[in-house]
Amino acid sequence: MSPSQDFAQRVLHWRDEHGRTDLPWQQRRTPYRVWISEIMLQQTQVAVVIPYFERFMARFPNQIALADAPLDEVLAHWSGLGYYARARNLHRAARLIRDQHHGCFPSDLAAVQALPGIGRSTAGAILSLACGQRHPILDGNVKRVLARRFGVEGWPGKSDVLARLWELAERCTPDERVDAYNQGMMDLGATLCTRHRPACQDCPVRQSCIACLQGRQSELPAPKPSKTLPTRATLMLAIRNGDGEILMEQRPPTGIWGGLWSLPEATTDTSPEQWCQAHLGVAPSEVEMLPQRRHTFSHYRLTIHVAAIKIATAPCLVEERADRRWEQVTNARQLGLPTPIGRILAELQNDSH
């Protein structure tokens, strides 16, 4: 038996004994349910995903329901999970499945990879876990397991390191029970071969693991080279009218928080009074600067200044646009919102009470 075959057999045996079997997306497996779970699990922990997945499935039980739903509603069910391009891509892909694949999730790897937001590893996971097809996967957990077991040097984000890991993933993936093996690899990385303090004493491949034998678990895989994140600042305008409604604006469909509802935004050198005059044609009756807050994106840190503004004008006297509307705060909190905006609205609602 080759080292790769021995590795696969040990993973399968461990999976049969210790693998996770009670996660909601493992029940009634379909390509659609696996797809949604795989996208939600990108950059997000299982415990966080579970309630989101269950709510999402209850509202969008299949790709047709997802395709037919308005994007606003999809984003509302995603609100709080972050990385909102994932939700926009899910919606676009569902519509392509409806319109170009007769409503059936494609079963060909190339066709699955052609859908928005689905890369090679996600496509392989969907078709192996839901359809039993032989495809290797290489998510973050699998990269870590393979890098440690086979002593792969370098950061997995580098093209040559990634190519080496794909080569190992292909070689180790068995011809039979691919679904159990791929699930076992994800479980192994999530529960034992964790980034910090891995439970090597319980690992089924510890006797042949190069990182374990050399005591280099903290070194492999190599971390992403660190860089200093730039900082930016913005002014959010929390504008309430005489009826207690708050002005909400929908962000452009692409970019940060694309398609989500937010507060009107301006540069930090903008006067809230001037903004109200210029954009609403009214002067505020009250302006209060709230404590600033910070939010970190993958490529920069954002400092958010918040101006709580009151105007006496009734909403009908302030022009509305397709991307701008007045909402009671309670209703606004049900929209698809970026997490920082949801927190600001919650504070405003609490203060009004």
From TrEMBL:
Keywords: 4Fe-4S, DNA damage, DNA repair, Glycosidase, Hydrolase, Iron, Iron-sulfur, Metal-binding. InterPro entries: A/G_AdeGlyc_MutY, DNA_glycosylase, Endonuclease-III-like_CS2, Endouclease-III_FeS-bd_BS, HhH-GPD_domain, HhH_base_excis_C, MIG/MutY, MutY_C. GO terms for molecular function: 4 iron, 4 sulfur cluster binding; 8-oxo-7,8-dihydroguanine DNA N-glycosylase activity; adenine/guanine mispair binding; metal ion binding; oxidized purine DNA binding; purine-specific mismatch base pair DNA N-glycosylase activity. The keyword RNA-binding does not apply. This is Adenine DNA glycosylase. It comes from Thiorhodococcus mannitoliphagus. Adenine glycosylase active on G-A mispairs. MutY also corrects error-prone DNA synthesis past GO lesions which are due to the oxidatively damaged form of guanine: 7,8-dihydro-8-oxoguanine (8-oxo-dGTP). PROSITE patterns: ENDONUCLEASE_III_1, ENDONUCLEASE_III_2. Residues 40-191 form the HhH-GPD domain. Belongs to the Nth/MutY family. Its cofactor is [4Fe-4S] cluster. It catalyses: Hydrolyzes free adenine bases from 7,8-dihydro-8-oxoguanine:adenine mismatched double-stranded DNA, leaving an apurinic site. Its EC number is 3.2.2.31. GO terms for biological process: base-excision repair; mismatch repair. Binds 1 [4Fe-4S] cluster.
